[in-house]
Amino acid sequence: MNTKIARRDFIKSGVAAGISLSGTPAILQGKDDREIKLGFIGIGGRGTGMLKTTMRLPNVSVTAVCDTFPKNLRAAQALVEKTQGLKPESYGDHELSYLDLLERDDLDGIVICTPWELHLPMTIAAMKAGKYAATEVGPASSVNECRELINTYEETRVPCMLLENYCYFRYNMAVLKMVRQGLFGEIIHCTCGYGHDLRERIVLGKGTGPTSKGEGDYRSTHNEYRNGDLYPTHGFGPIAQCLNIQRGNRIQQLTSTASKSRGLRQWSKDNLKADHKRRNIRWNQGDVVTTTLKCFNGETVVLTFDTRLPRPMSFMYQVQGTHGIWMQDGDSSSRNKSVIYLDGKSPHHQWESFDSYQEKYEHPVWKSYLDEAEASGHGGTDFLEMREFVSCIRDKKTTPIDAYDAAAWMAIAPLSELSIATGSAPVAFPDFTNGAWMTNKPIFGLG
Ligand SMILES: NC(=O)c1ccc[n+]([C@@H]2O[C@H](COP(=O)([O-])OP(=O)(O)OC[C@H]3O[C@@H](n4cnc5c(N)ncnc54)[C@H](O)[C@@H]3O)[C@@H](O)[C@H]2O)c1
Q1: Are 111 and 60 contacting, i.e. CB atoms less than 8 angstroms apart?
Q2: 137 Cα to the center of ligand 1, angstroms
Q3: Is the CB of 378 under 6 A from ligand 1?
Q4: Which terminus, N or C, of the chain has the lesser number of Cβ atoms within 10 Å?
Q5: Which residue among 50, 74, 114 is best mutated to probe the pocket of ligand 1, counting the most ligand atoms within 8 A of its Cβ?
Q6: Roughly how many angstroms between the first and final C-alpha of the chain, as a whole number?
Q7: Is 44's C-beta closer than 6 angstroms to any atom of ligand 1?
Q8: pLDDT tens across 203-232, in order?
Q9: What is the H or E stretch that residue 75 is in?
Q10: Using one digit for the tens of pLDDT, what is the confidence trace for 294-335?
């Protein structure tokens, strides 16, 4: 039998048979009996972390790795060999070497941790090769590539997953549970964002990819040429789950406004020698981009992108409804602490700590995997998302953050650029589901 066809048929038949969206979520089923073989593309800073997390999962092996930077490729190969005892095959002679990896017969799934502009082209190629694809977060380059992602999914029915680990944050999953139980009443308004001082990282580069620190990297290039919300999904993903975006609701339009661009120039002036080659870059990206999204069901979302000024980290989450409000900032100084006010339950006009609510409304996923998750990156979220991706492959299910989510969340970037470039004009949001959002049911965090 041709194993390549057999594996592709295995994936396609299961998913197309419609065993996908119903029942207990894969992550809770604990069916860990069949070995799943994965390939990794892009093993720099993030890819290495995800590789380590993935290899902690039972019955998962990494049989192929691809990176165009020889140092990272060799390090990934050595890491896998040391952990698993078997050396994975390596790919990376040229920029399209990943296509050779995708030709392999033995791979069930692909994990993509490359620079932003490669996420969707690589995801699409993996799906066309019949392999489940998980891609790291970032902005889409254009709305067209988001449409291409959807077209590919609808033609192949091979699932992909956006690795939006922030949806798995413990507090976000508890809040989602509370939203679904109606504790906040009808949701009216939310805020979210990505507030992270990345000045040094953007100006100089991180140095974990092919360019050394001091030369810039892909994030520097995007900041130099683009001007929009370039990292929308960490903020918007968890809020989209609360608002049932694509599943009973959808984004109708957005407007975006960018502040002036000063943060990186000031940082460069304060920290780099006068003759440093990266001191006088003309950054196109505004320091703070504020996007307002209007949903079909009437909710508004304010999304902030703020990575170029001094500030402690925050994701600015707030969920507000007719019966109460949960907020990540306010009186609490840490991003892991939050406050809540529920009408008729909380002391009148006073914030309460979220801690006791966290315990009471702990999501079942967290109840099941607390110890394992907490030992992994980003507060356990990396473990939970990779575990779920692998479970979906094993159980032939569609993924809980699917092609439609990836397209809509990542498209915020190019659409915010369009709004900014046209004087903060309202931009109609494409319906990537072609009307199916009206009857689609939620698929994330069930249980
Ligand atoms: N979800 C999270 O919490 C989180 C955290 C950090 C980074 N990220 C995301 O992960 C991605 C990678 O970030 P990073 O910091 O690891 O970057 P990095 O520069 O350290 O690594 C990228 C790797 O991709 C490789 N690469 C580039 N072109 C390639 C090609 N054509 N084929 C194969 N490999 C190629 C590079 O050589 C490099 O090793 C980004 O999208 C970033 O936004 C997500």
Answers
A1: no
A2: 10
A3: yes
A4: N
A5: 114
A6: 39
A7: yes
A8: 999 999 999 999 999 999 999 999 999 999
A9: helix 70-84
A10: 999 999 999 999 999 999 888 999 999 999 999 986 544 555
Which CATH code of 3.40.50.300, 3.40.50.1360, 3.40.50.720, 1.20.1250.20 fits the domain covering 3-165?
3.40.50.720
Ligand 1 lined by 217 (C-beta under 6 Å): yes
Ligand 1 close to Cβ of residue 379 (< 6 A): no
Per-residue pLDDT, 375 = 67
- CA 219 to ligand 1 centroid distance, Å: 10
Ligand 1 pocket residue status of 287, Cβ below 6 Å: no
Whole-angstrom distance, CA of residue 206 vs CA of residue 202: 8
Average pLDDT, the chain: 91
CATH of region 167-363+402-438, choose from 2.160.20.60, 3.30.360.10, 3.40.50.800, 3.40.50.300 = 3.30.360.10
CA of 45 to the centre of ligand 1 (A): 7
Q: Whose CA is nearest to atom 40 of ligand 1?
A: 115
- At residue 5, the pLDDT reads 34
User: What residues does each domain of the chain span?
Assistant: 3-165, 167-363+402-438
Q: Distance (Å, rounded) from C-alpha 406 to C-alpha 413?
A: 12
Mean pLDDT of 49-61: 96
Structure tokens at 183: 């504790």
| 379 torsion bin: left (phi>0), alpha (psi -120 to 50), beta (else) | left
